[in-house]
Amino acid sequence: MTRVTTYLKTIGASILASTSIFAQQMPDQSSELAKKAEDCYISGIKKKATCYTFQVPLDYQEPSGVQIDLHVTILKPTGSLTKQDPFFIYAGGPGQAAGEYGNLVKLAFHKINEERPIILMDQRGTGKSSPMRCRMEGYLPEEGATEEFIKKCFEEQPNDVRHFDSLSVVHDTEFVRKEFGFEALNFWGGSFGTRLSAYYALTYPDKVRSMILDGVLPPDQSLFYTAPFSAERAINKLIEKCQAEKECNMSFPSLREDIQILLDRAKKGEVLFKGPDPVTAEPIEFSLSRDMMVEAIRSNLYAAETTQYLPVMIKNAVDGDFNGLLAALLNGTGVSDSMYLGSTLSILCSEEVPTVTAESVKQHSAGTFAEDSYYTYWSTACKNWQAKPFHQPFKNPLKTDIPTLVLSGDLDPVTPPTLGDILMKGLSNARHIIVKGTGHNTSHIGCMPSLMAEFVNDLKPRELDSGCLRDYKAAPAFTAFSGTTKKQTKE
Protein backbone atom coordinates (compact mmCIF):
# COMPACT_ATOMS: atom_id res chain seq x y z
CA MET A 1 0.00 0.00 0.00
CA THR A 2 1.53 3.28 -1.08
CA ARG A 3 1.26 6.53 0.78
CA VAL A 4 -0.18 8.30 -2.30
CA THR A 5 -2.96 5.78 -2.74
CA THR A 6 -3.61 5.61 0.99
CA TYR A 7 -4.07 9.37 1.27
CA LEU A 8 -6.30 9.45 -1.80
CA LYS A 9 -8.51 6.66 -0.54
CA THR A 10 -8.60 8.01 2.97
CA ILE A 11 -10.22 11.18 1.55
CA GLY A 12 -13.05 9.09 0.19
CA ALA A 13 -14.90 9.09 2.05
CA SER A 14 -21.97 0.98 -4.31
CA ILE A 15 -30.13 -8.74 -15.70
CA LEU A 16 -32.79 -14.80 -15.95
CA ALA A 17 -34.28 -17.67 -14.26
CA SER A 18 -37.91 -18.16 -13.43
CA THR A 19 -37.54 -19.86 -10.03
CA SER A 20 -35.33 -19.06 -7.06
CA ILE A 21 -32.52 -21.50 -6.40
CA PHE A 22 -33.30 -21.19 -2.70
CA ALA A 23 -36.86 -22.33 -3.18
CA GLN A 24 -35.24 -25.68 -3.94
CA GLN A 25 -32.38 -25.13 -1.43
CA MET A 26 -29.88 -25.93 -4.21
CA PRO A 27 -30.01 -25.23 -7.94
CA ASP A 28 -30.63 -27.94 -10.47
CA GLN A 29 -27.13 -29.24 -11.14
CA SER A 30 -27.90 -29.47 -14.85
CA SER A 31 -28.75 -25.80 -15.12
CA GLU A 32 -26.40 -23.17 -16.50
CA LEU A 33 -26.58 -21.38 -13.17
CA ALA A 34 -25.46 -24.45 -11.24
CA LYS A 35 -22.47 -24.83 -13.56
CA LYS A 36 -21.25 -21.40 -12.48
CA ALA A 37 -21.49 -22.24 -8.76
CA GLU A 38 -18.25 -22.74 -6.83
CA ASP A 39 -17.63 -23.37 -3.15
CA CYS A 40 -15.79 -20.45 -1.59
CA TYR A 41 -15.03 -18.70 1.66
CA ILE A 42 -14.98 -15.03 2.56
CA SER A 43 -12.81 -13.43 5.19
CA GLY A 44 -14.47 -13.24 8.60
CA ILE A 45 -16.96 -16.08 8.07
CA LYS A 46 -16.13 -19.73 8.78
CA LYS A 47 -19.00 -21.35 6.92
CA LYS A 48 -18.76 -22.21 3.26
CA ALA A 49 -20.36 -19.87 0.74
CA THR A 50 -21.25 -20.24 -2.93
CA CYS A 51 -19.62 -17.95 -5.47
CA TYR A 52 -20.59 -17.11 -9.04
CA THR A 53 -18.82 -15.14 -11.74
CA PHE A 54 -21.06 -13.81 -14.50
CA GLN A 55 -20.30 -11.99 -17.70
CA VAL A 56 -22.27 -8.75 -18.01
CA PRO A 57 -22.11 -5.93 -20.57
CA LEU A 58 -19.57 -3.22 -19.92
CA ASP A 59 -22.08 -0.90 -21.57
CA TYR A 60 -25.73 -1.90 -21.19
CA GLN A 61 -26.51 0.15 -24.30
CA GLU A 62 -24.42 -2.39 -26.20
CA PRO A 63 -25.39 -5.74 -24.60
CA SER A 64 -23.47 -7.81 -27.14
CA GLY A 65 -20.32 -5.71 -26.82
CA VAL A 66 -17.44 -5.97 -24.35
CA GLN A 67 -18.24 -8.14 -21.32
CA ILE A 68 -16.78 -7.81 -17.80
CA ASP A 69 -16.74 -10.06 -14.73
CA LEU A 70 -19.43 -9.65 -12.08
CA HIS A 71 -18.70 -11.61 -8.91
CA VAL A 72 -21.51 -12.64 -6.55
CA THR A 73 -21.24 -14.49 -3.24
CA ILE A 74 -24.28 -16.21 -1.72
CA LEU A 75 -24.47 -17.06 1.98
CA LYS A 76 -27.22 -19.63 2.40
CA PRO A 77 -29.55 -19.45 5.40
CA THR A 78 -28.14 -21.02 8.54
CA GLY A 79 -31.51 -22.08 9.99
CA SER A 80 -34.03 -24.72 8.98
CA LEU A 81 -36.91 -22.33 8.24
CA THR A 82 -35.93 -20.20 5.26
CA LYS A 83 -37.46 -17.28 3.40
CA GLN A 84 -37.28 -16.82 -0.35
CA ASP A 85 -36.63 -13.07 -0.34
CA PRO A 86 -32.87 -12.53 0.02
CA PHE A 87 -30.93 -9.82 1.83
CA PHE A 88 -28.79 -7.84 -0.62
CA ILE A 89 -25.75 -5.87 0.60
CA TYR A 90 -24.69 -2.62 -1.06
CA ALA A 91 -21.19 -1.70 0.11
CA GLY A 92 -20.14 1.90 0.73
CA GLY A 93 -17.23 4.02 -0.40
CA PRO A 94 -18.00 4.52 -3.13
CA GLY A 95 -15.50 1.87 -4.11
CA GLN A 96 -15.82 -0.93 -1.56
CA ALA A 97 -16.66 -4.57 -2.35
CA ALA A 98 -19.54 -6.31 -0.60
CA GLY A 99 -17.68 -9.62 -0.87
CA GLU A 100 -15.14 -8.18 1.58
CA TYR A 101 -17.79 -7.40 4.20
CA GLY A 102 -17.49 -10.76 5.97
CA ASN A 103 -16.78 -9.28 9.40
CA LEU A 104 -19.77 -6.94 9.18
CA VAL A 105 -22.02 -9.80 8.04
CA LYS A 106 -20.90 -11.83 11.05
CA LEU A 107 -21.48 -8.97 13.49
CA ALA A 108 -24.60 -7.33 12.07
CA PHE A 109 -26.52 -9.74 9.84
CA HIS A 110 -26.22 -13.15 11.51
CA LYS A 111 -29.82 -12.93 12.72
CA ILE A 112 -31.10 -12.11 9.25
CA ASN A 113 -28.98 -14.89 7.75
CA GLU A 114 -30.72 -17.46 9.93
CA GLU A 115 -33.76 -17.28 7.64
CA ARG A 116 -32.61 -15.51 4.49
CA PRO A 117 -29.82 -15.92 1.97
CA ILE A 118 -27.43 -12.99 1.86
CA ILE A 119 -26.21 -11.70 -1.49
CA LEU A 120 -22.80 -10.02 -1.60
CA MET A 121 -22.29 -8.55 -5.07
CA ASP A 122 -18.93 -6.94 -5.66
CA GLN A 123 -20.07 -3.88 -7.57
CA ARG A 124 -18.25 -3.45 -10.86
CA GLY A 125 -14.75 -2.12 -10.38
CA THR A 126 -14.33 -3.65 -6.89
CA GLY A 127 -13.40 -6.97 -5.35
CA LYS A 128 -13.47 -9.69 -8.00
CA SER A 129 -15.74 -7.78 -10.38
CA SER A 130 -13.20 -6.40 -12.86
CA PRO A 131 -11.42 -4.50 -10.04
CA MET A 132 -9.96 -1.05 -10.62
CA ARG A 133 -7.15 -0.56 -8.14
CA CYS A 134 -4.57 2.18 -8.56
CA ARG A 135 -0.93 1.41 -7.87
CA MET A 136 1.99 3.76 -7.53
CA GLU A 137 5.22 3.80 -5.58
CA GLY A 138 5.71 6.84 -3.43
CA TYR A 139 4.52 8.66 -0.35
CA LEU A 140 2.14 11.48 0.29
CA PRO A 141 1.59 13.59 -2.85
CA GLU A 142 3.46 16.81 -3.30
CA GLU A 143 2.37 19.66 -5.58
CA GLY A 144 1.08 18.21 -8.86
CA ALA A 145 1.61 14.58 -7.83
CA THR A 146 -2.11 13.83 -7.46
CA GLU A 147 -2.92 14.68 -11.07
CA GLU A 148 0.01 12.66 -12.36
CA PHE A 149 -0.94 9.69 -10.19
CA ILE A 150 -4.55 9.71 -11.40
CA LYS A 151 -3.45 10.05 -15.01
CA LYS A 152 -1.19 6.99 -14.63
CA CYS A 153 -3.97 5.04 -12.94
CA PHE A 154 -6.41 5.92 -15.72
CA GLU A 155 -3.99 4.79 -18.40
CA GLU A 156 -3.56 1.40 -16.65
CA GLN A 157 -7.27 0.52 -16.78
CA PRO A 158 -8.15 -2.20 -19.33
CA ASN A 159 -11.80 -1.11 -19.69
CA ASP A 160 -13.66 2.11 -20.45
CA VAL A 161 -13.96 3.60 -16.95
CA ARG A 162 -17.02 5.65 -17.90
CA HIS A 163 -19.20 2.55 -17.55
CA PHE A 164 -18.29 1.89 -13.92
CA ASP A 165 -21.03 4.24 -12.77
CA SER A 166 -24.01 3.89 -10.43
CA LEU A 167 -26.56 3.31 -13.19
CA SER A 168 -24.54 0.33 -14.41
CA VAL A 169 -24.38 -1.02 -10.84
CA VAL A 170 -28.19 -0.81 -10.68
CA HIS A 171 -28.43 -2.74 -13.96
CA ASP A 172 -25.99 -5.33 -12.57
CA THR A 173 -28.21 -5.73 -9.51
CA GLU A 174 -31.27 -6.31 -11.67
CA PHE A 175 -29.30 -8.84 -13.69
CA VAL A 176 -28.50 -10.75 -10.49
CA ARG A 177 -32.12 -10.64 -9.29
CA LYS A 178 -33.35 -12.07 -12.59
CA GLU A 179 -30.55 -14.61 -12.88
CA PHE A 180 -31.46 -16.16 -9.53
CA GLY A 181 -35.20 -15.75 -10.01
CA PHE A 182 -35.87 -13.68 -6.90
CA GLU A 183 -39.22 -11.90 -6.91
CA ALA A 184 -38.01 -8.99 -4.76
CA LEU A 185 -34.99 -7.99 -2.69
CA ASN A 186 -34.41 -6.71 0.84
CA PHE A 187 -31.62 -4.13 0.71
CA TRP A 188 -29.02 -3.02 3.20
CA GLY A 189 -26.97 -0.04 2.15
CA GLY A 190 -24.18 1.49 4.18
CA SER A 191 -22.90 5.03 3.54
CA PHE A 192 -22.72 5.39 -0.25
CA GLY A 193 -24.56 2.08 -0.42
CA THR A 194 -27.62 3.98 0.79
CA ARG A 195 -27.44 5.95 -2.46
CA LEU A 196 -27.29 2.74 -4.51
CA SER A 197 -30.29 1.37 -2.62
CA ALA A 198 -32.21 4.55 -3.37
CA TYR A 199 -31.15 4.43 -7.04
CA TYR A 200 -32.42 0.86 -7.39
CA ALA A 201 -35.68 1.79 -5.64
CA LEU A 202 -36.12 4.75 -8.02
CA THR A 203 -35.53 2.45 -11.02
CA TYR A 204 -37.24 -0.81 -9.97
CA PRO A 205 -39.58 0.12 -7.10
CA ASP A 206 -41.72 -3.01 -7.42
CA LYS A 207 -38.67 -5.23 -6.94
CA VAL A 208 -37.81 -3.86 -3.49
CA ARG A 209 -39.39 -5.53 -0.46
CA SER A 210 -37.60 -3.47 2.20
CA MET A 211 -34.59 -1.25 2.80
CA ILE A 212 -32.23 -0.70 5.72
CA LEU A 213 -30.19 2.46 5.12
CA ASP A 214 -27.28 2.99 7.53
CA GLY A 215 -25.49 6.35 7.34
CA VAL A 216 -27.67 8.06 4.77
CA LEU A 217 -26.60 10.16 1.81
CA PRO A 218 -29.89 11.21 0.16
CA PRO A 219 -29.84 11.11 -3.65
CA ASP A 220 -30.84 14.77 -3.95
CA GLN A 221 -28.08 16.06 -1.66
CA SER A 222 -24.56 16.96 -2.82
CA LEU A 223 -21.79 15.31 -0.84
CA PHE A 224 -19.56 18.35 -1.35
CA TYR A 225 -22.21 20.64 0.13
CA THR A 226 -23.04 18.44 3.12
CA ALA A 227 -19.60 17.02 4.03
CA PRO A 228 -18.02 20.22 5.42
CA PHE A 229 -20.95 20.88 7.77
CA SER A 230 -21.19 17.22 8.75
CA ALA A 231 -17.53 17.28 9.79
CA GLU A 232 -18.03 20.60 11.58
CA ARG A 233 -20.96 19.14 13.52
CA ALA A 234 -18.86 16.15 14.58
CA ILE A 235 -15.89 18.24 15.71
CA ASN A 236 -18.21 20.53 17.68
CA LYS A 237 -19.73 17.52 19.42
CA LEU A 238 -16.24 16.27 20.29
CA ILE A 239 -15.27 19.64 21.76
CA GLU A 240 -18.53 19.93 23.72
CA LYS A 241 -18.07 16.40 25.06
CA CYS A 242 -14.50 17.14 26.12
CA GLN A 243 -15.58 20.32 27.90
CA ALA A 244 -18.24 18.32 29.78
CA GLU A 245 -15.73 15.69 30.96
CA LYS A 246 -13.63 16.86 33.91
CA GLU A 247 -10.41 15.02 33.01
CA CYS A 248 -10.63 15.85 29.30
CA ASN A 249 -11.34 19.52 29.95
CA MET A 250 -8.47 19.76 32.42
CA SER A 251 -6.06 18.04 30.00
CA PHE A 252 -7.20 19.83 26.84
CA PRO A 253 -8.76 23.18 27.86
CA SER A 254 -8.04 24.79 24.47
CA LEU A 255 -9.03 21.98 22.10
CA ARG A 256 -10.80 24.26 19.60
CA GLU A 257 -7.92 26.72 19.59
CA ASP A 258 -5.41 23.89 19.18
CA ILE A 259 -7.23 22.64 16.08
CA GLN A 260 -7.07 26.13 14.59
CA ILE A 261 -3.36 26.38 15.42
CA LEU A 262 -2.66 23.19 13.48
CA LEU A 263 -4.71 24.35 10.50
CA ASP A 264 -2.99 27.76 10.45
CA ARG A 265 0.47 26.24 10.67
CA ALA A 266 -0.30 23.81 7.87
CA LYS A 267 -1.70 26.60 5.69
CA LYS A 268 1.55 28.56 6.14
CA GLY A 269 3.61 25.49 5.23
CA GLU A 270 5.07 25.29 8.71
CA VAL A 271 4.31 21.61 9.35
CA LEU A 272 7.23 19.50 8.18
CA PHE A 273 7.45 15.87 9.20
CA LYS A 274 10.77 14.08 9.01
CA GLY A 275 11.17 10.67 10.59
CA PRO A 276 9.91 7.10 10.48
CA ASP A 277 6.55 6.40 8.89
CA PRO A 278 4.23 5.75 11.88
CA VAL A 279 2.77 2.76 10.03
CA THR A 280 5.69 1.16 8.14
CA ALA A 281 8.71 2.67 9.98
CA GLU A 282 10.20 3.65 6.61
CA PRO A 283 12.00 7.04 6.66
CA ILE A 284 9.83 9.78 5.16
CA GLU A 285 9.86 13.54 4.87
CA PHE A 286 7.04 15.80 3.66
CA SER A 287 5.17 19.00 4.34
CA LEU A 288 1.63 18.60 5.65
CA SER A 289 -0.76 20.91 3.76
CA ARG A 290 -3.90 22.38 5.29
CA ASP A 291 -6.10 19.97 3.33
CA MET A 292 -4.07 17.03 4.60
CA MET A 293 -4.35 18.33 8.16
CA VAL A 294 -8.12 18.58 7.75
CA GLU A 295 -8.24 14.97 6.59
CA ALA A 296 -5.99 13.79 9.42
CA ILE A 297 -8.52 15.22 11.88
CA ARG A 298 -11.68 14.30 9.96
CA SER A 299 -10.68 10.67 9.37
CA ASN A 300 -10.42 10.12 13.12
CA LEU A 301 -14.06 11.15 13.62
CA TYR A 302 -15.55 8.17 11.75
CA ALA A 303 -15.39 5.67 14.61
CA ALA A 304 -16.09 6.31 18.28
CA GLU A 305 -12.95 4.31 19.14
CA THR A 306 -10.59 6.65 17.27
CA THR A 307 -12.49 9.76 18.36
CA GLN A 308 -11.54 8.90 21.94
CA TYR A 309 -7.88 9.49 21.06
CA LEU A 310 -8.33 12.64 18.99
CA PRO A 311 -7.90 15.25 21.76
CA VAL A 312 -4.54 13.79 22.81
CA MET A 313 -3.48 13.43 19.15
CA ILE A 314 -4.24 17.11 18.54
CA LYS A 315 -2.44 18.29 21.70
CA ASN A 316 0.60 16.18 20.85
CA ALA A 317 0.64 17.58 17.30
CA VAL A 318 0.58 21.16 18.61
CA ASP A 319 3.59 20.21 20.73
CA GLY A 320 5.37 18.82 17.65
CA ASP A 321 4.54 15.10 17.85
CA PHE A 322 2.53 14.18 14.74
CA ASN A 323 2.80 10.41 15.01
CA GLY A 324 -0.77 9.90 16.22
CA LEU A 325 -2.44 12.05 13.57
CA LEU A 326 -0.19 10.80 10.80
CA ALA A 327 -0.74 7.15 11.69
CA ALA A 328 -4.45 7.68 11.12
CA LEU A 329 -3.88 9.63 7.90
CA LEU A 330 -1.32 7.27 6.40
CA ASN A 331 -3.20 4.14 7.37
CA GLY A 332 -6.60 5.48 6.36
CA THR A 333 -7.99 4.35 9.74
CA GLY A 334 -8.36 0.84 8.36
CA VAL A 335 -10.51 1.90 5.41
CA SER A 336 -8.07 2.51 2.60
CA ASP A 337 -7.11 -1.12 1.96
CA SER A 338 -10.75 -1.90 1.17
CA MET A 339 -11.18 0.92 -1.35
CA TYR A 340 -10.91 0.44 -5.11
CA LEU A 341 -9.93 3.93 -6.15
CA GLY A 342 -10.83 3.53 -9.82
CA SER A 343 -14.42 2.73 -8.84
CA THR A 344 -14.46 5.69 -6.46
CA LEU A 345 -13.30 8.03 -9.21
CA SER A 346 -15.72 6.72 -11.83
CA ILE A 347 -18.64 7.45 -9.53
CA LEU A 348 -17.54 10.72 -7.91
CA CYS A 349 -16.35 12.15 -11.23
CA SER A 350 -19.74 11.33 -12.77
CA GLU A 351 -22.31 12.21 -10.15
CA GLU A 352 -20.69 14.50 -7.59
CA VAL A 353 -17.96 16.73 -9.02
CA PRO A 354 -19.83 17.88 -12.18
CA THR A 355 -23.03 18.71 -10.30
CA VAL A 356 -21.51 21.60 -8.31
CA THR A 357 -19.10 24.46 -8.93
CA ALA A 358 -16.01 25.52 -7.05
CA GLU A 359 -17.65 28.82 -6.12
CA SER A 360 -20.86 27.22 -4.84
CA VAL A 361 -18.89 24.73 -2.71
CA LYS A 362 -16.79 27.56 -1.28
CA GLN A 363 -19.97 29.40 -0.32
CA HIS A 364 -21.59 26.30 1.18
CA SER A 365 -18.50 25.38 3.21
CA ALA A 366 -17.69 28.84 4.54
CA GLY A 367 -17.12 28.91 8.28
CA THR A 368 -16.23 25.22 8.62
CA PHE A 369 -12.80 23.88 9.56
CA ALA A 370 -12.83 21.62 6.47
CA GLU A 371 -13.74 24.49 4.12
CA ASP A 372 -13.81 23.23 0.51
CA SER A 373 -10.90 20.77 0.89
CA TYR A 374 -12.96 17.67 0.06
CA TYR A 375 -14.21 19.14 -3.22
CA THR A 376 -10.84 20.63 -4.13
CA TYR A 377 -9.10 17.29 -3.84
CA TRP A 378 -11.61 15.25 -5.82
CA SER A 379 -12.17 17.89 -8.50
CA THR A 380 -8.41 17.90 -9.05
CA ALA A 381 -8.38 14.11 -9.25
CA CYS A 382 -11.24 14.09 -11.77
CA LYS A 383 -9.33 16.25 -14.25
CA ASN A 384 -7.57 13.11 -15.47
CA TRP A 385 -10.45 10.65 -15.14
CA GLN A 386 -13.15 10.25 -17.78
CA ALA A 387 -16.75 9.98 -16.62
CA LYS A 388 -20.09 9.76 -18.38
CA PRO A 389 -22.85 12.36 -17.76
CA PHE A 390 -24.76 11.58 -14.60
CA HIS A 391 -28.15 9.83 -14.88
CA GLN A 392 -30.30 12.83 -13.91
CA PRO A 393 -33.34 10.90 -12.54
CA PHE A 394 -31.07 9.74 -9.73
CA LYS A 395 -30.94 13.29 -8.39
CA ASN A 396 -34.66 13.22 -7.60
CA PRO A 397 -35.74 12.93 -3.94
CA LEU A 398 -36.72 9.40 -2.98
CA LYS A 399 -40.49 9.25 -2.39
CA THR A 400 -41.77 5.79 -1.60
CA ASP A 401 -43.91 3.64 0.67
CA ILE A 402 -41.34 0.83 0.68
CA PRO A 403 -40.83 -0.28 4.31
CA THR A 404 -37.58 1.42 5.31
CA LEU A 405 -35.41 1.52 8.41
CA VAL A 406 -33.06 4.53 8.52
CA LEU A 407 -30.07 4.35 10.90
CA SER A 408 -27.76 7.16 11.99
CA GLY A 409 -24.87 7.51 14.42
CA ASP A 410 -25.14 10.71 16.42
CA LEU A 411 -21.39 11.43 16.04
CA ASP A 412 -21.16 10.60 12.32
CA PRO A 413 -18.86 13.12 10.56
CA VAL A 414 -20.07 12.47 7.00
CA THR A 415 -23.68 11.17 7.10
CA PRO A 416 -25.13 12.60 10.34
CA PRO A 417 -28.75 12.26 11.51
CA THR A 418 -29.70 15.49 9.74
CA LEU A 419 -29.30 13.72 6.39
CA GLY A 420 -31.43 10.85 7.63
CA ASP A 421 -34.12 13.38 8.54
CA ILE A 422 -34.00 14.81 5.01
CA LEU A 423 -34.50 11.36 3.48
CA MET A 424 -37.36 10.62 5.89
CA LYS A 425 -39.44 13.43 4.36
CA GLY A 426 -40.13 11.25 1.31
CA LEU A 427 -40.65 7.95 3.14
CA SER A 428 -44.24 7.21 4.18
CA ASN A 429 -43.53 3.85 5.85
CA ALA A 430 -40.26 4.37 7.68
CA ARG A 431 -38.51 4.82 11.01
CA HIS A 432 -35.33 6.74 11.83
CA ILE A 433 -33.25 5.34 14.70
CA ILE A 434 -30.39 7.53 15.96
CA VAL A 435 -27.78 5.80 18.12
CA LYS A 436 -25.93 7.92 20.67
CA GLY A 437 -22.19 7.65 21.09
CA THR A 438 -21.56 6.10 17.67
CA GLY A 439 -20.01 7.35 14.47
CA HIS A 440 -20.31 6.19 10.88
CA ASN A 441 -22.57 3.10 10.56
CA THR A 442 -24.48 1.51 13.45
CA SER A 443 -25.80 -1.84 12.16
CA HIS A 444 -23.46 -3.83 14.40
CA ILE A 445 -24.13 -1.86 17.58
CA GLY A 446 -25.81 -3.52 20.58
CA CYS A 447 -29.25 -4.95 19.82
CA MET A 448 -29.39 -3.47 16.30
CA PRO A 449 -28.88 -6.88 14.59
CA SER A 450 -32.04 -8.17 16.32
CA LEU A 451 -34.00 -5.03 15.47
CA MET A 452 -33.01 -5.31 11.82
CA ALA A 453 -34.01 -8.98 11.69
CA GLU A 454 -37.38 -8.15 13.25
CA PHE A 455 -37.91 -5.36 10.74
CA VAL A 456 -37.08 -7.53 7.71
CA ASN A 457 -39.46 -10.20 8.97
CA ASP A 458 -42.43 -8.01 9.93
CA LEU A 459 -41.95 -4.88 7.78
CA LYS A 460 -43.29 -2.69 10.59
CA PRO A 461 -40.57 -0.10 11.22
CA ARG A 462 -42.66 2.12 13.48
CA GLU A 463 -43.44 -0.74 15.86
CA LEU A 464 -39.80 -1.57 16.60
CA ASP A 465 -38.82 -1.13 20.25
CA SER A 466 -35.43 0.58 20.17
CA GLY A 467 -35.28 1.03 23.93
CA CYS A 468 -32.37 -1.39 24.06
CA LEU A 469 -30.23 1.33 22.41
CA ARG A 470 -31.43 4.24 24.50
CA ASP A 471 -28.63 4.25 27.08
CA TYR A 472 -25.65 3.97 24.76
CA LYS A 473 -23.20 6.82 24.99
CA ALA A 474 -19.66 7.62 23.87
CA ALA A 475 -16.92 6.55 26.25
CA PRO A 476 -14.80 9.27 27.87
CA ALA A 477 -11.87 10.62 25.89
CA PHE A 478 -8.38 9.33 26.58
CA THR A 479 -6.04 11.86 28.13
CA ALA A 480 -2.99 9.79 27.10
CA PHE A 481 -2.32 6.87 24.77
CA SER A 482 -2.00 4.67 27.86
CA GLY A 483 -5.62 5.36 28.81
CA THR A 484 -7.76 2.42 29.96
CA THR A 485 -11.25 3.72 29.20
CA LYS A 486 -13.68 1.18 27.80
CA LYS A 487 -14.57 1.56 24.11
CA GLN A 488 -18.30 1.89 24.78
CA THR A 489 -20.36 2.02 27.93
CA LYS A 490 -23.93 2.16 29.13
CA GLU A 491 -25.24 4.76 31.49
TrEMBL record:
Q: Which Gene3D superfamilies match?
A: alpha/beta hydrolase
Its chief place of residence is cytoplasm
GO CC terms, sorted: cytoplasm
Q: Does the keyword Cytoplasm apply?
A: yes
Domain named Peptidase S33 tripeptidyl aminopeptidase-like C-terminal: residues = 375-467
- EC number(s) on record? 3.4.11.5
Keywords assigned: Aminopeptidase, Cytoplasm, Hydrolase, Protease, Signal
Q: Which GO terms describe its molecular function?
A: aminopeptidase activity
GO term, biological process aspect, one: proteolysis
The protein's location, in the record's own words, is: Cytoplasm
Taking every annotated instance into account, which residue ranges of this chain make up the domain AB hydrolase-1?
Answer: 86-229
Q: Where is the signal peptide?
A: 1-23
Q: Which domain of life is it from?
A: Bacteria
Q: Does the keyword Hydrolase apply?
A: yes
The UniProt catalytic activity note for this protein reads: Release of N-terminal proline from a peptide
Which family is this sequence assigned to?
Belongs to the peptidase S33 family.
What protein name applies here?
Proline iminopeptidase
Q: Which organism is it from?
A: Temperatibacter marinus
